[in-house]
Amino acid sequence: MIYLDYNATTPLDKEVLEAMLPYLEDVYGNPSSTYAFARKSRKAIDEARQKAASFLGAEPDEIIFTSGGTESDNTAIKGVSFARLPKKGSIITSSIEHHAVLNSVKSLEKFGFECKYLNVDEFGLIDLGRLKDYLGPDTILVSVMYANNEVGTIEPVKDIVRLCRDKGIYVHTDAAQAAGKIKIDVKELDVDFLSLSAHKLYGPKGVGVLYAKRGVKFEPLLHGGRHEKNRRASTENVAGIVGLGKALEIARSRMDDEERNIRILRDKLQNGILERIPEVKLNGHPDKRLYNTLNVCIKYIEGEGMLTHLDFEGVCASSGSACTSGSLEPSHVLLAMGIPHELAHGSLRFSLGKYNTESEIDRVLEIFPPIVEKLRSMSPFWNGK
Amino acid sequence: MDLEYTNKVLEYFKNPRNMGKIDDADGIGKVGNPVCGDVMWIYIKVKNNKIIDCKFQTFGCVAAVATSSIMTEIVKGKTIDGALNISNKNVVKELGGLPDIKMHCSLLAEEGIKKAIEDYRSKSKT
Ligand SMILES: Cc1ncc(COP(=O)(O)O)c(C=O)c1O
Ligand code: FES
Question: B7-125: which CATH architecture?
Fold first, then answer.
């Protein structure tokens, strides 16, 4: 199998698994219990919190462990809004967010909040000028992703913060795709909230971080016990949190080497596809883009067919085609970038990671062009160009 | 999304029968899928009220390829009226079923053949 879908999820790093195992076996104490045995669990969480804080340049008490990127996004967006009630306000996000953000924002419309969606340009960059126009006295939150999961475009989060800072508007960024790939320093970035997810950086599924700057006000999503300093109730996912901590520690120490290797492979795949296959459009920003992500539109054919042929060959990738979406709508990200419906239909995303090798890329470059040729020969629009 | 295709669907997708166009077709049915935006063209060749050849082209998903391919096989050798009686349900049954969300794709095959026959009839009148 050749796995090229690291933006969907990553395999668990063996070192992470090893760090987790004791907490799935012998060290099962509830971190809230008082005896020495349970304090082992508590200590493991404290250490993971320290690692997460170091990873982000944050203080340990600014780290809240959650069940993943989705919960972190929901908590920041709904939490800030609900803390204002009974007053309402206006929330601004981009039209290319992950659905964890888009649908969280949208849900607030039902509660009387006003929601505005920023356009993006053809590369997927948000319109800062428009953001300036949208910011008003009742704006309470701006949520824009650090890097987009489908096309990899990296958004100008720092510029967004600059526009919001003196107006007292909170800024949240969904860094689920950026974390582990780009160095993040929340102090330098100066955001109020940031989400990340362990399974995007070789950690386990079902655990993530919400960074919440000291002093920010938000209503918890989960009410219950006094866990996470009353900000997220429920007995901690100890093994998951330990795994997340370990994954962040590894990512921090090896990010630069990984970037170099993965970028070389991604560029090889990108150039190989553009050279070997005519009429291909590269999606996303040419350079303000995650170094592991390659998103292309293969004109005149449809994505599910390409994915299925790739799957026959053991290659895992993904597509923004309407036929694969479950909703039969093409990717909202590609449409927001102005890509026509029929082009989005032929979109394909390859996202690479630290376990990919050059021979895997060579293999994909060998099998993919004939797949395109075969499907194009079936297409009424191709006409053997 | 849960997309479990039957082996037969995947087999028809992998090795589609009757794929391509018929240059001197007697009827062409061009249909589009308003749901997902896919497109299918079906070509027929008719002799003595019988479909003697049928081919398809598609800009569509796995289910669209498989259903149109098997449709061309089913109608080949049938009379015009026989072909008009084939519904998407026959096609789906023949393939051993389709995921729910893909049922609409099989309509393309049925509409395509009907359109092609319509085209043939309108041409043969003049
Ligand atoms: C940008 C982005 N945000 C949020 C999520 C959701 O994270 P999780 O799967 O941990 O809920 C993902 C991944 O699915 C993502 O890519
Ligand atoms: S034809 Fe598009 S989903 Fe099947």
Answer: Alpha-Beta Complex (3.90)
